[in-house]
């Protein structure tokens, strides 16, 4: 099954080929993603990310609800910050 995970866009820039890229925060972990499919995304927006590509924008409340559901299902393994 494929799953897109919501995250908050914290940085936007042009990649080496002029394709927009950015840093997306997933509740403690930040990953670099391609923003080619959402070129209008701005810092602070929530985007749905699948295998390194932001596929669309999502509202903040809906993003939090998805995270609550994924956390309840114990499906956030690689996105959780490690315990010190």
Short overview:
The chain is an alpha+beta fold.
H and E string: EEEEEH
Shape: elongated
Query: How many distinct helices?
Result: 1
**Reported CATH architecture:** Roll
Strand order of the largest sheet: 3-2-1-4-5
**Gyration radius, to the nearest Å?**
13 Å
- Which range best describes the helical content: under 10%, 10-25%, 25-40%, 40-55%, 55-70% or over 70%? 10-25%
> Can you give the mean pLDDT?
86
Mind describing the biggest β-sheet?
5 strands, antiparallel
Query: What is the CATH third-level topology name?
Result: SH3 type barrels
CATH level-1 class: Mainly Beta
Structural class: alpha+beta
| Total count of strands | 5
Number of domains: 1
Low-confidence parts: none
The first-to-last residue Cα distance is 32 Å
Strand content: 35-45%
